[in-house]
From TrEMBL:
Signal peptide: none annotated. Keywords: Transferase. Residues 196-342 form the BioF2-like acetyltransferase domain. This is CelD/BcsL family acetyltransferase involved in cellulose biosynthesis.
Length: 443
């Protein structure tokens, strides 16, 4: 293989380095870009004609950069890889310092369950070609102590993820899971659920249906999206404070990011927001992404108190599954994690991978420390009683520190000018629930 640095052509005005990796007739050229907006037209073409995950769509990434990159001290970067002058992929990355260590990582910032490139249409690269693509990418990256891309799926829908083919990619203990959607929507749950889960869902649905004004809503306009989003934030914060669990939405910029993404194309775009209503009150809310024929669960929240017995979180999740099939979607993605409620839907687990390369001793020490912490956590989880006691202590300490002020940033007046009555009710009168339903960022 030969490598060569070449002059930047006029079209690369926003790039600061170009690199070529050649082997035989396969020549890959990598270009580092620091202006994401200038890449938007190309990015949109690739994501529509090619392949990516929902978390690398340009709409998601631009909102992420606008609301989260500055708060996290991250400089967004995109590596464009070309072959024969034609784009092969775009790889969104972030360059930041953490505890004095310079890191290049996937452009995640806490809101992406998967890291992946946006791949142009065409034949999937072979492992040897994937290796040359990775070498070209590495050559244009800024100086760093640690290069780490984690939670790489093995495939991007029907297309192999070239980064998962790199020799240095190793499987993670963490997996993703989901199941196919097919057939008649009205009988979907009976087909996908275990017998016991289906009986439980039917029993809880009947219990809920005894109440007045029971409605499942998929928000279709900006006002409805904003109202339901306010309720979701209030319900999650109340529940997480109750159990002493860290709430990612309390981090700077998080609420503004999720709100902006939801309001970009309300009801029709990447983000969809849902609510389950009874007795004039929203008893559960959910936030997910639709991309490539799949629904991806992201956020879910629910009321507690008198509603706990109906398991509103589980019920809204099951109704979203039916909604997704009615919309013609063919896959329901639980994304990452192994929460117990998922097993009842008999999902298929799929591997995730990581590329981690330490370029300096400092980077190596950080990587070793993180691997040691992950191993220690895995060891604790093999002793459930001890793990649960430690987790109880941690949550007790968090509750002792007291809650953060419950503050939902006001959106722009043109989008939503007031906090709805439903959100006020949720903040003042609802509590969380211990239902076996998703309470994490990603379903």
């Amino acid at each position: 293989m030969s490598v060569e640095a070449v002059p930047i052509r006029p079209r690369d005005a926003v790039a600061d380095f170009v690199f070529q990796a050649s082997a035989g007739s396969a020549t890959y050229e990598a270009v580092l870009h620091r202006d994401l907006a200038s890449l938007a037209p190309l990015w949109r073409r690739l994501q529509e004609a090619g392949a990516c995950t929902a978390f690398q769509r340009i709409e998601w990434v631009l909102a992420l950069v606008a609301h989260l990159s500055a708060a996290r001290g991250a400089e967004p970067l995109v590596v464009e890889v070309r072959r024969g002058g034609h784009p092969v992929l775009l790889l969104p990355l972030a360059h930041r310092r953490r505890r004095g260590v310079r890191i290049v990582e996937a452009l995640d910032l806490g809101v992406c369950d998967y890291a992946a490139p946006v791949v142009a249409p065409g034949p999937a690269p072979s492992p040897a070609e994937a290796e040359r693509i990775w070498q070209a990418v590495r050559a244009v990256l800024p100086r760093a102590d640690l290069i780490r891309l984690t939670r790489l799926p093995g495939d991007l829908g029907p297309v192999a993820n070239p980064l998962a083919l790199v020799a240095g990619a190793r499987p993670l203990a963490l997996t993703r899971s989901g199941f196919g959607l097919d057939g008649d929507p009205e009988t979907l749950l009976k087909r996908v659920c275990s017998a016991s889960t289906h009986r439980d869902l039917m029993r809880r649905s009947k219990r809920l249906d005894r109440h007045a004004d029971v409605r499942f809503v998929a928000a279709t306009d900006a006002a409805e999206v904003a109202d339901l989003f306010d309720v979701l934030v209030a319900q999650r914060r109340e529940r997480f404070r109750e159990i002493g669990r860290f709430e990612p939405l309390d981090e700077p910029g998080m609420i503004a990011f999720y709100r902006a993404a939801a309001l970009a194309e309300p009801g029709t775009g990447l983000v969809r927001v849902f609510g389950l209503r009874a007795e004039g009150e929203w008893i559960a809310t959910a936030y997910g992404l639709v991309h490539g024929g799949a629904f991806h669960g992201v956020l879910l929240a629910m009321a507690g108190g008198a509603w706990r017995a109906t398991a509103p979180g589980l019920l809204i999740a099951s109704r979203i599954m039916v909604w997704a099939r009615r919309e013609g979607l063919t896959y329901f993605d639980f994304t990452v994690g192994a929460q117990p409620y998922k097993a009842g839907f008999r999902p298929e687990e799929r591997p995730l991978f990581e590329i981690a390369e330490a370029a300096t001793l400092r980077g190596g020490l950080m990587l070793a420390g993180e691997h040691a912490a992950a191993s220690a956590k895995a060891a604790l989880e093999r002793h459930p009683a001890l793990f649960e006691r430690l987790r109880t202590v941690v949550r007790w300490l968090r509750r002792r520190r007291g809650p953060k002020p419950l503050h939902i940033p006001a959106p722009a007046a043109a989008e939503h000018t007031r906090l709805t009555r439903s959100a006020q009710v949720a903040m003042g009168h609802t509590a969380g629930t211990r239902n076996p339903a998703p309470e994490n960022r990603a379903g």
